[in-house]
Amino acid sequence: MILIVDDDKSVRLSVGLLLKRAGHAVDYAENPDEAIAKIRSNEYGLILMDMNYSRGTSGREGIELLMKTKIFQPDTPVILITAWGSIELAVEGMKAGAYDFITKPWSNQVLLQRIETALNLNSLQEETAVSTFDRGGIIGNNKSMLELLATVERIAPTDAPVLILGENGTGKEMIANAIHINSQRKSAPFVMVNLGGISQSLFESEMFGHAKGAFTGAVTARKGRFETADKGTIFLDEIGDLDMSCQVKLLRVLQQHTFEPLGESRPKKVDIRVICATNANLNEMVAQRTFREDLFYRINLITLHLPALRERRDDIPLLVRRFMEDSAASLSIDVPEITPEAMEFLTRLPYPGNIRQLKNMVERAVLIGGQRLGKDIFASVDGSATAVEEIRPSGTLNDMERIAIEEALDKADGNLTQAARILGITRQTLYRRMDKYNMK
Ligand SMILES: Nc1ncnc2c1ncn2[C@@H]1O[C@H](COP(=O)(O)OP(=O)(O)OP(=O)(O)O)[C@@H](O)[C@H]1O
């Protein structure tokens, strides 16, 4: 049974009729209090919920009703009905656990389709009971990663736009892909576009495509990325690099779901889900007016923050092992052994390049390091800068001094004069310290 909550009688009746015709049983509530009373005592397959009630137009009542609903019926999908232009309210609603939202005025066909999708998915989840979530190769058991993946699981089946924030190499593309492969769009294309690599002059032909002869050099017609991504997901990486004129063009596609290929007069329709990513601070860019506020609201219905690798060091051993296995497999060699010191060393690096940097280090080490990978191999494959910037373990001053001496000796290949120079102490002092720590 589907519950329709709306204070507008004509909406209740027309939607009710629509759903009954489509073969659904329907129940109604005309205000939040009545709705909660019903939600407490009946189990619904889906709830269609208006966000604006006559007592106030802020949508507060709607949000409160949604939160209460989620307490009594956490697994029932809720589709919000929001007034056109109240995108922030929809954002808040999705964060509070709504399954989807639809803006007024809607087309009956779209409404029915969204309802069917939600119902199908929910029954599928009930049938399988265990999660069918596909991590898409994402490794990590760190708490913040698990929370993030739980959010990905929840939002993947919706069509809500997602903004993924995080430093370079933290796995933004992998997350975007995970959203796609866990969505209803998974059998349609996942198209990735690096907007940082597209100049302003190329933007239109690249994204919208062009007709044959649209400009000099356009010898054949070419499909744009939007068209390629039709029915699927488009992943716009480095969205912060888009200049103002391209931002307007992108916004138009997102608002109207249509675009015009260069040299063609008729607009084409697209059905895409948009996922954007950036390592730029878009809030700041909006404040400085280098990023359009309306575009920002369009793309960030849901924001996911990917932690930097240094903030989830507990995942490093897991990642190292997996990357070693993968590299060994692609080289058709046995998986090498890694010394405990090397693993410990790897967990302490600063990783400005995040997971991509770690992966490169491990791949190179496996390639040249033989069957037993020690700390030196890893230090050498990533240049000295990384080792110098290495984060000291939080230990006693003595521990840190001992480690600094070991590293200087390492770097100087055991040459004491050179090691002392690296440490900024005299050779005599180095002798005394080595003696103190029983070092040979
Ligand atoms: N959690 C993870 N588990 C396994 N591999 C990962 C993980 N995160 C990232 N990687 C790997 O690290 C590399 C970088 O990931 P990805 O391209 O997704 O990062 P990104 O944040 O999109 O980078 P950029 O901002 O530079 O575009 C890829 O080779 C990816 O396979």
Summarize the topology.
Blueprint: E1 2-5, H1 9-21, E2 26-29, H2 32-41, E3 46-50, H3 60-72, E4 78-82, H4 87-95, E5 100-103, H5 108-128, H6 143-155, E6 162-165, H7 172-181, E7 190-194, H8 200-208, E8 209-210, E9 222-223, H9 225-228, E10 233-237, H10 244-256, E11 258-259, E12 268-269, E13 273-278, H11 282-287, H12 293-299, E14 302-305, H13 316-331, E15 337-338, H14 340-346, H15 354-368, E16 372-373, H16 375-381, H17 383-388, H18 397-411, H19 416-423, H20 427-436
Parallel strand pairs: 1-2, 1-3, 3-4, 4-5, 6-13, 6-14, 7-10, 10-13, 15-16
Antiparallel strand pairs: 8-9, 11-12
Helix pairs in contact: 2-3, 13-15, 18-19, 19-20
Bound molecules: adenosine-5'-triphosphate.
Adenosine-5'-triphosphate binds at residues 137-140, 166, 168-174, 237, 279, 355-356, 359.
Which fold does the CATH topology of the largest domain refer to? Rossmann fold
Q: Briefly, what CATH class of the largest domain?
A: Alpha Beta
Overall 3D form: elongated
Radius of gyration: 28 Å
| Associated small molecules | adenosine-5'-triphosphate
Structural class: alpha/beta
N-to-C span? 78 Å
Stretches where pLDDT is under 50 for at least 5 consecutive residues are 384-393
Order of neighbouring strands in the sheet with most strands: 2-1-3-4-5
Strand content: 5-15%
Characterization of this structure:
It comes from Lepagella muris. By secondary structure, the protein is α/β, with parallel strands linked by helices. It has three domains: 2-128, Response regulator (Rossmann fold); 143-307, Rossmann fold (3-Layer(aba) Sandwich); 311-436, Helicase, Ruva Protein, domain 3 (Orthogonal Bundle). 48% of the residues lie in helices and 13% in strands. The protein has 20 helices and 16 strands. It has helices at residues 9-21, 32-41, 60-72, 87-95, 108-128, 143-155, 172-181, 200-208, 225-228, 244-256, 282-287, 293-299, 316-331, 340-346, 354-368, 375-381, 383-388, 397-411, 416-423, 427-436, and strands at 2-5, 26-29, 46-50, 78-82, 100-103, 162-165, 190-194, 209-210, 222-223, 233-237, 258-259, 268-269, 273-278, 302-305, 337-338, 372-373. A hairpin with an 8-residue loop joins β11 (258-259) and β12 (268-269). α2 packs parallel to α3 and α19 packs across α20. It is elongated and about 90 Å long. It starts with a strand and ends with a helix. Mean pLDDT is 87; it is low at 384-393. Bound molecules: adenosine-5'-triphosphate. Residues 137-140, 166, 168-174, 237, 279, 355-356, 359 line the site of adenosine-5'-triphosphate (ATP).
